[in-house]
Design brief:
Blueprint (H helix, E strand, L loop, with lengths): L9 E5 L3 E7 L7 H6 L7 E6 L2 H4 L13 H6 L4 E2 L4 E2 L2 H4 L14 H4 L5 E4 L27 H14 L3 E4 L51 H15 L6 E4 L10 E4 L2
Parallel strand pairs: 1-7, 3-6, 7-8
Antiparallel strand pairs: 1-2, 2-3, 4-5, 8-9
Length: about 260
């Protein structure tokens, strides 16, 4: 649980145009100034993510990559049900699969291991117009209304703090990319695993192996790794840091270094 007041209200900008904010849960009504004077009895930290496909959870359906169709592509397809032999993307993306936002159950915000509430507002393919209010040029995206009013309350305290922390994720997947020589694709003899599989979804046509839009996004292992990075960042005092992986080890062993 995050208890330090300096860490209760934080805005975090990540390297891939993604944003997370940690604030105290509970909407700030019109009388927000009065409510701030008398904090709620139980202030639960709320972690909010907004952005596009990189942070929404796109490709979280896949645990590594495989071209072997049997057994749910060698166990990499998390939408595959071994009991029925059928694939159900809703097992991973829930109702967000309907409009293609593809907010997976292992998205970065969901993979954080701290005791807090989470709200994933990110949507695959989203642009800034999906966040702006209609009177400011905002437009609905994939049938979802503008999120400006929804996120304004949970970001209010973070905005008061001024500025944002920066978490550099640009090197997080070094050696874990598609076709990396230090990883391997799954098959019958080599089941998917976080320490040996690729952490990025390979390019697909959308025929047979999920959706084309999942291509070149962090897969289950990649998203879990990003969640570890965010967990580590939130456990530290405010500051800018870079997150890297430990060669030959899984998503839970990510490491942070300060950015000079």
């Amino acid at each position: 649980m995050i208890t330090s007041p300096s860490r209760r209200s934080r805005t975090l900008a990540a390297a891939a145009a993604t944003v997370c904010a940690l604030t105290v849960s509970g909407a700030l009504p019109a009388s927000a100034s009065a409510s701030r004077a008398e904090p709620a009895a139980a202030e639960a930290p709320l972690l909010v993510s907004l952005g596009d496909s990189f942070i929404s959870g796109e490709a979280g359906r896949w645990a590594g990559n495989s071209n072997v169709r049997a057994n749910g592509y060698s166990g990499t397809d998390r939408a595959w049900d071994p009991a029925t032999g059928k694939r159900d993307p809703y097992r991973v993306y829930g109702s967000s699969y309907d409009n293609g936002c593809n907010r997976s159950d292992v998205a970065e915000v969901q993979s954080v291991t701290l005791d807090l509430s989470r709200l994933n507002l990110a949507c695959s393919g989203a642009t800034s117009k999906a966040v702006l209010l209609p009177e400011s040029g905002g437009k609905p995206f994939k049938g979802e209304r503008s999120q400006a009013r929804e996120i304004s309350s949970v970001l209010a305290d973070a905005a008061d703090e001024g500025g944002a922390e920066f978490l550099d994720l640009s090197r997080s997947f070094e050696g874990r990319e598609v076709c990396s020589t230090s990883t391997r694709q799954a098959d019958a003899a080599h089941p998917p695993a976080g320490d040996t599989s690729e952490w990025v979804r390979f390019v697909t046509s959308g025929i047979g192996q999920g959706q084309k839009q999942e291509s070149l996004h962090p897969n289950r292992y990649g998203q879990q790794a990003l969640g570890t990075c965010l967990t580590l960042q939130l456990e530290q005092p405010s500051g800018d840091r870079r997150c890297t992986n430990a060669p030959g080890r899984g998503p839970a062993t990510m490491r942070l270094n300060s950015i000079d």
